[in-house]
Model the fold of this input.
Amino acid sequence: MNLAGPGKNKENAIGLKLNTLTYDLKWSSDAEKKFGLTIGSQGMFQQNENFGKEMLVPNADVSDIAAFALLRYDIGKWNFLAAEDLICATLKLEAKKKARLIHWICDPKLNLNKITSYQRSIGVAFRPDDQWTLKATLHPDSAPELCGTRNVWKHEGTYRFEIGNEDLKIEQNLESDLGVKWETKSVAIELSGYYNFIDNYIFIGQRGDSIGPSSGL
Done:
């Protein structure tokens, strides 16, 4: 986005360069055997840099790496599954001086955020015949609010100043679902339902404070 006035050179009002690198690795054992194992890793590395006059998001280095394992055991008409995920997320922001309220502000001691979380799931499926399948899954999960709860900044997109709280606990949820499926060579009908319970839910709360007339916040 360029801005230019009479007799002035063009300049970038908003400019952002984002570099992203992703990878996906997976290995699976013989699917024909009763016991099976799948292991792998997924990851993403991002680096964004502003080169405009205004800055809507801060310069940051982001990494998100996960390792997972899936166990499978088949016996007769029963299929059992168990999965484990290990996720490590890191966010490093470019800190600005606290006097410059017109730009993003990050507490120096919170400048490097690193959260490690685990995700697990277990499931079972029963096939009484070739057409019917009954299945159930239990999936405890965590949803770490890596950036929004730990840093202090002006949110350019919403015209508000956000103050995080590093003492907040990580969001946790427990999901369970049940399903039944009927299928033939040409038709498949499936009915499923789930229940999801969320604990330590994190949300934005209003304080009513004002940074100052010059900032407009």
